[in-house]
Amino acid sequence: MNKKRCKWCNLKNPIYIEYHDSEWCKPNFEDGYLYEMLILESFQAGLSWECILNKRESFRLAYDNFDIDKVCSYGQEKIDELLCNKDIIRNRLKINSSINNSKIFKSIVNEFGSFYNYLKIFTQNTIIYETGKTTNALSDAISKDLQSRGMKFVGSTIIYSYLQAIGVIYSHDKECYLYR
Predict the structure, then answer these.
(1) Burial of 169 from C-beta contacts in 10 A (0-12 / 13-18 / 19+)
(2) Whole-prediction pTM value?
(3) Which tens digits make up the pLDDT trace of 14-40?
(4) Active-site residue among 16, 24, 35, 41?
């Protein structure tokens, strides 16, 4: 019997189904995961999440398995390499901002002890259950703060999607077998 899934989930893409069923909206607050998802979400701006998800393994390879210390040290040679990598999104602004955002992410971790500790300032450690939205007051506030710290490609819609991805916002459709 086929399970009913969220209407956005492309049932012809096994990667997307696996992401929907096993990862999306499930709380995962480890810094490594929070970092990877923030970088991937920032590359989504103007594109579909499915496009990014299909390139996720290539991003992992290109970005040294999202080793934040390595990414923070990327120089022009590595930027040029990334710009030539046909398996990822080759957008100069996004690549440059991913390095800059990595440095800011690391400074937030140093300031708060973990990125989740930083997020808890806004979330009060609660999970939000809502569907049918692309932004809310929480994503607005986090986006505004990250932008004030110098991050790019972290608008409210991207941050809302990020919060869904990491499990702060639970958004499975009412028709989905994972709806709560």
Answers:
(1) buried
(2) 0.96
(3) 999 999 999 999 999 999 999 999 999
(4) 41
